Amino acid sequence: MAFGSSLGVACLAAVLTIPTILAAHDARTTSRAVYPGDNKNIVYQEYLDPYGSQPLRRVFFGRTGPGPAPVPPGIARLPRTGEAVVSPKLAEVLAANPRAAGLVPGRVTGTIAPAGLGGPDDLYAYIGADPATLPEARALGHFGADGVRDELVDPSTLDILRFTLGCVVLLPLVIFLSVCARLSGESRARRLAALRLVGLSAKDTLRVNAGESVAAAFVGAVIGIVGYLGANELMARIGLPGLHWYPADGRPEVTTLVVCLLGCPALAWVVGQYGARQAASSPISVRRTGERRAPRKLGTLLLVPGLGIIGGYCVLSLMGRDPSGGSASAVLVPGAVLLTGAGLVFGLAPITAWLARRVAGTTKSLPLALAMRRTEVDPGSSLRVVTGLVLLVFGASLTQGVLVELDQVSRRTTPVQEYAFDLKDLSHDQRQQLAEVPGVQTDVVKYSSWLPRDGTLPKSIDLVAATCSQLRMAAQRTNGCANGRIMQLHDGNAALPDDPQPGEHFPFETQDGRRVTVVVPRERIDMTAYQPSSFSSGALLVPPSLLPPGLADSAGTLTLVSDADPATVRSVLDGIGAVAPTADVQPVGIVIDSLAQLAVIRSLLGVGMVLGLVIGVAAFVVSVADRAMERRGQVAALVLLGARAGTLRVVQVVQVLLPLVVGLGGALVAGWLAESSYLITGGGAVHWDWDGLPLLLGCALGVLLAAALASLPMVRRHVDPEHIRRD
Question: DSSP label at 530?
């Protein structure tokens, strides 16, 4: 009991500390937020740029006069002109990549202390500069804000994350701690009944049981807290993908300690009181294993409203209606998910008992009949074995839905991703290296026509240097493209198609200041571009061999094209940061902050799934071992009656697999419907996660196989005389 409680409390502390880690990060980023004011001595200008797949924040300060100035947390003074103070992570980047020195002009004079950083992986810099070099500078006011700034996870997304972690971790955790509090429940009930029969009062009998349970749970809670503190110190130094924190951020607060040190013993006391009630009130029936009551069926009724709500949303989607939006779904869907999860837990015992009774009445197999009859009279023990794994599969479905929904919000829904650069920011070698970055499918150069500097805005046109195959990679549909010819792109789905007319002339500037004229051809390519895109309607597709030589880089743009998979996008951005760290990259249609936030959420949900898996497997192993110990007397009786080893093993495996099959089947169906209802009400393009269904089915089959193999060693035919029942 103490070991199981320690594992459960360690997982509980980890889940309760996640909001603390996020709050500590947000508090530090808020305290360093810079605001304008009326300070006549200092002006500032902020920059937020991507460095690879990470956001890079820089604040330039220019001193316009003598006098005091506010100082942000983490540094002793503002840097002077030509000086820079950077975060330790950015200092490592500058040391490892000399080409990134252009990001931080000036001499690095120090590093920012943890008080001024969101986390150890923060890319941040304070740079002293000449005020004349800051075109949009504002007078400095103060540092720090009343509201949250630069939060790690958006508040609305954080609510979804908390709910998901609660379903994935906290619900199985409560079941696991309850299982630990009921270990050796049958033998303990017989021992308590013996105490009751020799004269101990019912109240004192319950006190004995409560004292044992609370003492073991409290010792386990202390061990769990100590174990979590050690794990936090280690994980804080390793970090998670997209999330690093300081060890102090992950240390549990007072409320967390109270919940862990008092909540676990309190749960053990409640479960112990419930489990010892029959031994205290009816000791004779416990000692002589009287007939057990059938499990109550009221818990199964929770499935009716839960499945009714989530099934209703799925039916509306199949009928072509859109139930997304509104405040009703924001309340109904989470409520239906909780009702369905509770129904799976409380309805598993009566459903399993009913099914076992039907199978036992029709089967001709002795092992199957023995297993079914045992499951029929004691479905509660099977419930403790499989509930954690059932809730884990149910929670995994919800996690997949959350990831699919966030993936739709945080990235383009098109299959390709574009990255645009100004050619003037790239050298010739950098252009070649960018085209060879892993994940890049093709690269395209585009030039804009010359515009006069007198303030007028005449019509302009773009030259896209690409072949037909390159165009097909980046466009949704192309029709009529011919290689070796200059042709005009026409997108009938464009919002404002204002295509130039055939025969119009457009000038393009060259490197030496001359201008060359390009005539719009009659040939057109009907296409549909992924929006937004660099391939706009009206542009001219020019084969690279026919491109006018020497066009000015100041009017040119380099566009890279890759798959839109988040992992590929992140990999390409990291490769871009290594090749051209100072170039201004524009990932078309996505926001770097959203991409970084998605990485954090994936990491936290991954942690939740790992904790849920640990809890589910631990509950299964503990329950199977405990049940094998409790049934030694029954196994001894069967051995004396002549049961073979193979028969006993089949009985043990079937007893475990039957409730597991029923529970996992219900969890798969209910979980997938719950995930679909969440996606439907979320308003995204994906309503049915068909891609995630095979993964869940594979996980369920793997759980069944592992459960069957783990049950085999739990049967021993050795007969100990003390296990022979005289009654």
Answer: P
Predicted local distance difference test score (pLDDT) of residue 554? 78
pLDDT digits (tens, 9 = 90+) for 92-141: 888 877 767 777 877 888 899 988 888 888 888 898 888 887 777 788 88
Is the link from the previous residue into 659 a cis peptide, with omega within 30 of 0?
no
User: Is 246:17 a contact under the CB 8 Å cutoff?
Assistant: no
Helix then strand count (H, E) for the chain reads: 20, 18
State the sign of the Cα–Cα–Cα–Cα dihedral 337, 338, 341, 347. Answer: negative
Q: What's the chain's average pLDDT?
A: 76
Tokens of 406: 């966030």
pLDDT of residue 727: 39
What burial letters (b/e) apply to 133-153, b meaning 16+ CB within 10 Å?
eeeebeebeebeeeeeebbbb
Which residues make Cβ contacts (< 8 Å) with residue 194, sequence separation at least 6?
283, 287
- SS3 at position 711: helix
- Compute the distance between CA of residue 710 and CA of residue 708 in angstroms, rounded to an integer: 5
3-state SS class at 443? strand
Per-residue model confidence as pLDDT tens digits over 393-425: 777 777 776 666 666 655 556 677 888 888 887
Distances (CA, A) of 430 to 99, 107, 533, 541, 556: 11, 25, 23, 24, 15
Residue 126 phi, psi dihedral angles, 5° rounding? -110, 125
Conformational region of residue 670, where left means phi above 0, alpha means psi within -120 to 50, and beta covers everything else:
alpha
The residues with which 319 forms a beta bridge, in sequence order, are: none
Beta-carbon contacts of residue 545 (< 8 Å; ≥ 6 apart): 484
Report the C-alpha gap between 138 and 496 in whole angstroms. Answer: 37
In DSSP notation, 396-414 reads: HHHHHHHHHHHHHHHS-SS
Phi-psi region of 303 (alpha: psi -120 to 50; beta: other; left: phi over 0): alpha
Whole-number Å distance between alpha carbons of 661 and 701: 9
- Say which DSSP state 424 is in: G
Tell me the backbone φ, ψ of residue 562, rounded to 5 degrees: -140, 175
Q: Which DSSP string do the residues of 285-339 spell out, in sequence order? A: HHHTTPPPPPPPSGGGGGHHHHHHHHHHHHHHHHTT----SSHHHHHHHHHHHHH
Q: CA-to-CA distance for 658 and 650, rounded, in angstroms? A: 12
pLDDT tens across 142-178, in order?
888 777 776 777 776 777 777 777 777 777 777 777 7
Report whether pLDDT(692) > 70: no
The Cα 461–Cα 448 span in angstroms is 6
Would you say residue 316 has pLDDT above 70?
yes
Q: At what angle do helices 264-281 and 2-31 cross, to 10 degrees?
A: 150
E-assigned strands of 92-238?
Answer: 107-111, 123-128, 138-143
Q: How many CA atoms lie within 13 A of 190 on its CB side?
A: 10
| Euclidean distance between CA atoms 221 and 261, whole angstroms | 6
